[in-house]
Amino acid sequence: MPDGPERFAVMRDMKRIFNAYMPYKIHGHRFVNDVSHPWLIGYRRHPFLRDFFKYVDIDAGARRG
């Protein structure tokens, strides 16, 4: 169906049907578990950032000990 008022009317009707018969019920259950070693320096989990490894350093003295 090409773009136009008829298509948009059909899409609007579909949205109404979806909302009537299948209302959105969004759930989010997040569980985060971190394991780190004592020789890891600067580790702190960011709530959104996933590439935290560039901010982490290793204490070689503590690692040998």
Task: Give an overview of the whole structure.
The protein is mainly alpha-helical and 65 residues long. The protein has helices spanning 5-21, 60-64, and strands at 40-41, 57-58. A two-stranded antiparallel sheet has the order 1-2. The protein is elongated and about 70 Å long. The termini are far apart.
Quick synopsis:
This protein is mainly alpha-helical and 65 residues long.
**H/I helix tally:** 2
The overall pLDDT average reads 81
Measured distance between first and last alpha carbons? 70 Å
- Uncertain runs are none
Helix content: 25-40%
The main sheet comes to: 2 strands, antiparallel
Q: How many individual β-strands?
A: 2
Oligomer: single chain
The H-and-E topology, N to C, reads as HEEH
Which radius of gyration do the C-alpha atoms yield? 25 Å
Strand order of the largest sheet: 1-2
The computed structural class is: mainly alpha
User: Strand portion, in percent?
Assistant: 5-15%
List the helices and strands and how they pair.
Blueprint: H1 5-21, E1 40-41, E2 57-58, H2 60-64
List keywords for this structure.
mainly alpha; elongated; two-stranded antiparallel ribbon; 2 helices; 34% helix
